[in-house]
Specification:
Elements (H helix, E strand, L loop, with lengths): L1 E10 L2 E7 L4 E5 L6 H13 L16 H4 L9 E8 L2 E8 L9 E6 L2 E2 L9 H6 L3 H7 L1 E2 L18 H16 L12 H23 L2 H58 L7 H18 L8 H13 L7 H35 L3 H5 L6 H16 L15 H21 L3 H26 L12 H15 L9 H48 L15 H61 L13 H4 L6 H40 L14 H92 L1 H6 E3 L5 E5 L2 E3 L6 H20 L5 E5 L7 H15 L3 E6 L8
Parallel strand pairs: 3-13, 8-12, 12-13
Antiparallel strand pairs: 1-2, 1-4, 4-5, 5-6, 6-7, 9-10, 10-11
Length: 883
């Protein structure tokens, strides 16, 4: 057999992949996690399927392969494998369910035609290889996990003595079910059956003895029956005589009942001479009662005690009338103006405070008003400048006396050159000196231009005015302005600065005067509105005399008062609205009350019209005469409940009358029927009965005989059952004896088969143990001669090894030695099963524990095997690459 290819639709992590195989050695060297074990397991699953599992499988055991290799990404779980065998090509297609093999689908094709030659889907591997799945794993499927060397399960047909032992054990256990040892808990089928047959024989003898007494019991039963018949006839004759007397008495009793019923009906009709309302009238009364009850409970809720108390206070407060909408709007507008004016007054005062703080900084405020105004100072200045200028007025614009912008720019440029030259000097002395010199030049030029501008191009030193007069004019200027701090030494600049400062001071004084006037006007308006609001609010009981007027702080006083006004106005308007709502509600209440009382009286009138027809004396409804208002029925259901009560009484009386009438009719019919059934009963006379003492003795005797008859019948019935059981038990005993003979025969056959199987086992051991041991030593000897020289196979094909003069199991070997032993045993077992024609061998990295020396020897062995067999070899490291 040779595997040609396989296609994996989905198995573990492998999905939609086809893999081709060649003759001889097939190597798959892949890293861990690639899917080598998955592919090896897939090949096995194609031949043997996958075991089902339950969701609650034990987690401490190995994960089921069906669960382990289910594709997590979903899709088809399975694939196909193609191989050749005996000159034919085969293809196995399998898809697997997630948990159970009931969902599996398997198809087999032989030479491209569907093939049904295998007994079941699970037996494909067994049919092809002659191996069950366990034996397949121990021979042709060599994985990395260690599996002990043993013949267990390799072939249940002929190869394994372990298989024979299992069959012999099962046979022995089966024989014990027929006949076990004397002291066994379960003695076996044959002894149990014999014991039951003996017990049944005893029962049959007892049944036969019981049947012998039945004849006497039949005779006694006949005599009792005859005597009972005589006593019953005598009693019947007595009863017929007695019955004639009882018929007359029963007629008299029925006739008396008719008279009593007739009298009750007459008495009832006497109490109700006008009869009762008809059904339609009763329905009309019920309809009126429903309408009245609806009206009684349609009344809106009145005022609670708390609301009444509140209404009383509001009546007193608004005795002179409530606040109209126009008044409310007017007073709210006044309050808004008052609050707005107070905010404006607050802002004016804050502005005045700022101006006052600013004016306090002025020298004119600190020193006092100057003796001369700015104009007088300017006149003195003109005299001074005339003395300085001679033929031309001095330019009085102080802005022109400022330092020119070009001078500032040149100064900055000069500083840059000087500093730059100093910095560059340490890098390049020549450039540094040039920059420094340029900076000095620009600085001298700037000084010349500044001095030229300051002199305005005029030579005041050449003025011919009298120096004394010039000094005197200057002193006159400073006499006016020096006390205000204008003493820079330049009388022209100081005079102009004095004039500007004085004008600013006067402007601030003017603002203070204007602000003060505005504040006074606002205070006057605020006071007027406040008085008007206070007067309005006092009409409703509010006083504001307790508000303290802080000295010198009218604004705070009016703010506090306004807050009180606002609170009081809000309370008055809210109370006014509340009072209006109360008033409207009271009017609505009275209006509704009158309407509902009218509706009640209307429906009450209809009820009275019906009642007066049948009870004109008002015997049963006199208390319905008042109106709803008089009864105070609203929210009490008094009238409707009363009407319902009357209707209930009438209905009850009608039912009572009907019952009396029906009872009278029933009694009459009973009397008539009795007369029909017993003609002449009304005229019958009492008949004297037989002697009561004789009748009592007969009754006692009859009762005793009847009891004896019942008891005797039960005994006969039981005896008859036993008689019937005798025939059935005899048939059952016959069947049991036949069964015992059959079981004994089966027991003898099984004993013979057990003997034959033991002899066959010895023949199997003699035939296969030596060849497997020889092949095992051949393969192991090629890999490790020390192991092959010391090995001996038991009759169960289990290898044992010489260790320190004793035989030890495979478990005492190292991991590497175990790998060598396992490989040798599997190949030996496969050779025994398949001869020299191995179908294929799958190896899933089984040599992880071998050193280089053993790997080289394994390589040689596998090269030899691959010349005649297909080897599919998986490994995950180049060190175990055997090519």
């Amino acid at each position: 057999m040779k595997i040609k290819s396989c296609y994996i639709a989905g198995f573990g992590k492998i999905k939609d992949e086809k893999i081709e195989f060649k003759d001889g050695f097939n190597l798959f060297e892949r890293e861990n996690g690639f899917g080598k074990t998955t592919l090896a397991t897939f090949i096995k699953a194609m031949f043997y399927g996958l075991e089902s599992y339950k969701s609650n499988y034990s987690k401490d055991k190995k994960m089921p392969e069906r669960l382990k290799f289910y594709p997590l990404s979903g899709g088809v779980f399975g694939g196909n494998i193609e191989f050749t065998e005996g000159g034919n090509s085969y293809r196995i297609e399998r898809t697997f369910g997630k948990k159970s093999d009931t969902e599996d689908v398997t198809k087999v094709y032989k030479n491209n035609e569907e093939f049904f030659g295998f007994e079941s889907e699970k037996s494909i591997g067994e049919a092809l290889f002659g191996l069950n799945e366990n034996a397949f794993i121990r021979t042709l499927f060599i994985g990395s996990e260690y599996i002990e060397s043993s013949g267990a399960g390799i072939s249940e047909n002929s190869l394994s003595a372990a298989g024979a032992d299992k069959a012999i054990d099962e046979m022995s256990a089966n024989i014990k079910t027929y006949k076990a040892s004397a002291n066994a808990k379960n003695p076996g089928k044959i002894p149990v059956m014999k014991k039951e047959a003996d017990e049944l024989s005893v029962k049959i003898k007892n049944y036969e003895k019981i049947g012998e007494n039945l004849g006497e019991k039949y005779k006694r039963l006949s005599a009792i029956s005859e005597e009972i018949k005589i006593l019953k006839e005598r009693k019947e004759k007595y009863n017929s005589l007695k019955l004639l007397s009882e018929v007359n008495a029963q007629y008299a009793a029925l006739n008396e009942k008719v008279k009593v019923s007739e009298e009750k009906l007459a008495e009832f009709n006497k109490n109700y001479p006008y009869s009762f309302p008809k059904p339609d009238e009763l329905e009309s009364m019920s309809s009126s009662a429903r309408a009245i009850k609806s009206a009684e409970f349609s009344m809106p809720d009145g005022f609670t005690e708390e609301e009444k108390s509140r209404l009383k206070l509001l009546d007193e407060k608004f005795a002179g009338g409530t606040v109209s909408d126009e008044q409310a709007e007017e007073k709210q507008t006044e309050l808004g103006e008052l609050k707005s004016d107070l905010r404006e007054l607050s802002a004016v005062n804050a502005n005045l405070d700022e101006i006052k703080e600013e004016i306090k900084k002025s020298p004119f405020y600190l020193v006092g008003e100057p003796a001369a105004t700015g104009e007088k100072v300017l006149l003195k200045l003109k005299k001074y400048t005339d003395l300085l200028g001679g033929n031309e007025q001095v330019n009085t614009d102080k802005n022109k006396r400022k330092t020119p912008k070009i001078c500032i720019a040149l100064l900055i440029l000069a500083i840059v050159f000087v500093l730059g030259g100093a910095g560059v000097f340490f890098i390049n002395k020549l450039v540094g000196i040039i920059l420094f010199a340029a900076g000095i030049t620009v600085l001298l030029t700037d000084a010349f231009i500044y001095l030229l501008k300051r002199s305005d191009g005029k030579d005041y030193g050449s003025v011919s005015a009298n120096r004394y007069e010039l000094t005197n004019a200057k002193n006159e200027i400073y006499a006016l302005i020096a006390r205000y701090g204008y003493v820079s030494g330049d009388p022209i600049k100081d005079a102009y600065d004095f004039n500007d400062g004085y004008l600013s001071y006067k402007k601030l004084c003017s603002k203070i005067a204007e602000g003060t006037q505005k504040a006074e006007r606002l205070f006057e308006k605020i006071n007027t509105i406040s008085n008007d609001l206070g007067s309005f609010l006092s009409e409703y009981g509010f006083t504001f005399d307790n508000i303290v007027y802080p000295e010198g702080n009218k604004l705070y006083y009016y703010k506090l008062k306004t807050e009180k006004y606002e609170s009081a106005l809000k309370e008055i308007l809210t109370s006014s609205d509340e009072y209006k709502a109360f008033t409207k509600r009271a009017e609505k209440y009275e209006e509704t009350k009158k309407k509902l009382e009218s509706d009640i009286d209307f429906n009450l009138s209809d009820v009275k019209k019906i009642l007066v027809k049948y009870d004109p004396e008002e015997t049963y409804w006199s208390d319905l005469g008042d109106t709803a208002a008089a009864k105070g029925s609203l929210n009490s259901s008094y009238i409707s409940d009363k009407i319902y009560g009357i209707i209930t009484d009438i209905t009850s009386n009608i039912a009572e009358k009907k019952r009396f009438e029906e009872d009278y009719g029933t009694k009459l019919k009973e009397l008539s029927d009795y007369k029909t059934a017993h003609p002449g009963c009304e005229n019958a006379e009492n008949v004297s009965a037989a002697n009561p003492s004789d009748i009592a003795a007969d009754d006692k005797k009859l009762d005793e005989l009847l009891k004896e008859e019942v008891s005797l019948n039960k005994e006969i019935e039981e005896d008859e059952k036993y008689s019937e059981l005798t025939d059935g038990s005899k048939a059952e005993l016959s069947e049991m004896k036949e069964t015992i003979r059959g079981l004994t025969h089966e027991y003898e056959i099984l004993k013979y088969a057990e003997k034959f199987m033991k002899e066959a086992k010895d023949a199997v051991i003699a035939k296969y143990t030596a060849p497997i041991e020889s092949a095992y030593k051949k393969y192991v000897g090629a890999l490790d001669k020390n192991i092959s020289d010391s090995v001996k196979l038991s009759d169960r094909l289990e290898p044992n090894f010489e260790k320190e003069g004793k035989l030890a199991s495979e478990g005492y070997l190292s991991d590497g030695e175990k790998a060598v032993s396992s490989l040798g045993f599997r190949l030996a077992a496969a050779e025994a099963v398949f001869g020299g024609n191995l179908p294929f061998v799958i190896m899933d990295d089984p040599f992880v524990f071998l050193d280089k020396k053993h790997l080289d020897e394994v390589k040689v062995l596998l090269e030899t095997l691959s010349e005649t067999s297909q080897i599919i070899y998986f490994c995950c490291h180049e060190s175990r690459n055997l090519i």
